[in-house]
Every structure is written in structure tokens, then in C-alpha cells.
Amino acid sequence: MKILEEIILKNSTPLEPQLTSAVANLRKMEGIKAVLFDVYGTLFISGSGDVGTAAATDTAEALTQALVVSGYEGELEQAGLTGKEMLKAEILEWHKAGKEAGTDFPEVEISKVWKKITDRLQKTGIIKPHETNLDQIRRLALEYECRVNPVYPMPGAKETLLRLKSRGIKMGIVSNAQFYTPPLFPAFFGIPLEELGFDPDCCIWSFKELKAKPSRELFPKAGKFLMQNHGISLSETVYVGNDMLNDMYTASEAGCKTVLFAGDKRSLRLRENDERCTNLKPDAVITSLNQLADLIPT
Predict the structure, then answer these.
(1) Least confident segment among 14-18, 56-60, 254-258
(2) Which of 86, 116, 148 is the last residue of a domain?
């Protein structure tokens, strides 16, 4: 894990949120005992506005650079061009297979995707054959992600989490994510998820479930552990996210109260043309994470 944190920090430069035209609605919510968070675009500024596998941002140059620093050899410029198309195709194939198997919104496990791609690049002779291991595959995946989707903590994120923790509010995560998402927290905040106040059982990561938001199955799983571990129902829980469909709609359908984070233009997704969001209003709207704790009376 430490190696992943080092790679994240080495590839990171400060980012600032981009102002939106949203107006805050700081309505207080009584009876809230738990907070669930989205990650990309909410707790962390995301250069692409989402986790890289869900975004359209990618470049051949980024893949070439990632291959170089991950220790691959061969025709790496060509590997960048060919590999990025393989990546798109493999993700589409994975999603197709998942849907055929009955999953409403399939998620990839990106290490397995990159393993297939590097195997094919070796078979074609574009990169030199050698024995690869999981650590090298994971480094390639993370080095590429850092280049196509740079991230940085949202202003007020750590302070907000620690403030909620100090008040005994239970916390979890429901996020589209990959293996390199949990290490963002110790990398940038200097302490692990648990010390920030998160219950690991209540952290639902799409890559582990092989289902992505807006799947209806993710929030009930978080709810099961909130009830099992803390005696808290989803009706006593608020979800904080930046996407009206993936976050507000799906969380409200599961029974959560909702807070739309509208503090960064890159990631704010209002989904105004989606009928599921036409008449949907979050319980509150914040334009800064520092506003969140004040919405939950002590």
C-alpha cells in the first residue's frame, strides 16, 4: 500500500475547484446519525470529473509514459497508441459480458483489464516479453490513472471528516472506484480511512462489487452494515455526492437523505435531461465541504 501512496503523491500537483453557479441550500437535517460519501468529485478534485475508467479522458502519450516508468520495454510509443484502443475495447467487452450475466451497471476490475492488455501487447511483439507480476500491473494501472485523471483533496475534506468523527457521526463510502482509490486517503491525509472516521465495512467500492453506480445494489449493502454494526438505518443516513443520477437519485431511492456537493464545475453532474432527475431535489446543496457538518444538528 505504501508504494501506491508514494506513486500517487509523486504524480500529484495541487488542484483548485472550479466555481459553479450553484446556490447553496443549507437546510438542516434532523435525526442524521451517519454520512456516506462519494469520492471522485466530492472528497477529491478529479481532473476528469470521475474515476478514470468511467471517463473519456485518455491519451496514448500517458500510456507510453506509464509503460516506461513501470519497467516495460519495446516499441512503447506504438504500445501507447495500440494499448489505449485495447483499453477502451476491453472495458466495453467487460461491460457487455456483465450485462449479459444480469448486472445492471457492470464495473471492471482494472488490474485484470491491464493484465489482458499487456499480455496481448507482448504477443504482438510491441512490448518485449517478460514475466509480469501483479505489482507491476498495478503500478502500470496507477501510473496511467494519475496521468489521465489527476486528483487532489477537495478543500475542507480532511477537516470535515475529522469534525464529523469527533461528533460521533458514523461514516462510510459508496463510490465508483478502483484498487487505487482507498490509498488516496492515507496518501493525501496522512492517516488511514479508519482514523479519519470511516467504518471499513460501510465502504462500498464498485471494483469489489463488480457493480457501479447507479446500480441499486450498492446502497443497500452499505445500509446492511450500518444497521449491523451501528444500529443505524438508511433513513438516518445522508449521502453526499456530486452527481444527480449516480448519487442523489440512487441514494434517495435506497432511502437516504441527500446532499448535493456543487463545489466544482469539473464534476458537478446535474443530469437535467434525464427523466429520473427532472423533478428530483436533494435535501440540501453545499458549495463547500466546510458547510456539511453544520447541516447536521448535534
Answers:
(1) 56-60
(2) 148
Q: What is the CATH number of the domain that holds 193?
A: 3.40.50.1000
Q: What pLDDT sits at residue 56?
A: 43
How large is the average pLDDT for residues 242-258? 98
Same domain for 158 and 281, yes or no, is yes
* 64 and 44 within one domain: no
- Taking the C-alpha atoms of residue 67 and residue 83, their distance in angstroms, rounded to an integer, is 10
State the number of CA atoms in the 13 A half-sphere of 143 facing the CB.
20
Q: How far apart are CA 130 and CA 36, in angstroms?
A: 43
- Spell 196-206 as b/e; 16+ CB within 10 A means b: bbbbeebbbbb
pLDDT on residue 48: 76
pLDDT band at residue 204 using 50, 70 and 90 as cut-offs: very high
